[in-house]
Design a protein that fits this description.
Layout: H1 2-21, E1 30-34, E2 37-43, E3 48-53, H2 89-106, E4 118-124, E5 131-139, H3 149-159, E6 176-182
Antiparallel strand pairs: 1-2, 2-3, 3-5, 4-5, 4-6
Helix pairs in contact: 2-3
């Protein structure tokens, strides 16, 4: 009888820990006031989540030619390479360092992300080529909703400031919009 109670208690404790680990931090639109930073989470009616630093200025602003109010979009089929950045050894290094930064930040959460990509949208300064800000995009049915905002903040602080080599076209824009998708491994 005693062993049965111990077994039941252990099962209950395990289930409580499992349920607590599955907390959905991003169920509704809200603001996270954390130690030293504030993040905004916007959730659409169809479950698209945008998570970003509340100090961001480009999150909902279209990329435009400087001095105009006309959105600037690139038809990639018109180009053989990215018309806004120059791929050189520095950019190849950035690609690998991005993966290291994201994988390190997700730490023990990585196994939960199998089969799901996180979209990281970069706003790059058209003056300096540096990543000036970024935001994250994921759907509410993915395991990214169970990751605390501090993990996303860690990624942000390590990516902001990394530099791209820009083309002359990119330097004519208010900022350079880039995105990439990653499945933490």
């Amino acid at each position: 009888m005693y062993m049965k109670k111990v077994l039941i208690l252990n099962c209950l404790l395990f289930n409580i820990i499992f349920v607590a680990a599955q907390t959905n931090y991003y169920e509704t639109t809200k603001t996270f006031h954390e130690k030293g930073f504030t993040y905004q989470c916007d959730v659409t009616t169809y479950g698209d989540i945008t998570l970003y630093n509340s100090l961001n200025k480009w999150t909902y602003i279209d990329q435009m030619k400087k001095g105009t109010n006309v959105p600037f979009y690139i038809k990639m089929e018109d180009y053989d390479t990215d018309p806004l950045t120059v791929e050189d050894e520095h950019d190849i290094y950035n690609d690998s360092i991005y993966k290291v930064i994201v994988n390190d930040a997700f730490g023990s959460y990585k196994g939960k992300m199998k089969g799901f990509e996180l979209f990281i949208i970069l706003s790059i300064s058209s003056e300096t080529g540096e990543i000036s800000e970024l935001y994250f995009n994921f759907m509410k049915h993915t395991p990214y909703v169970t990751i605390p905002v501090s993990v996303y903040r860690e990624i942000e602080t390590k990516l902001v400031g990394l530099k791209y080599t820009l083309t002359p076209l990119a330097k004519t824009l208010n900022y350079v919009y880039q995105w990439w998708a990653i499945e933490p491994k």
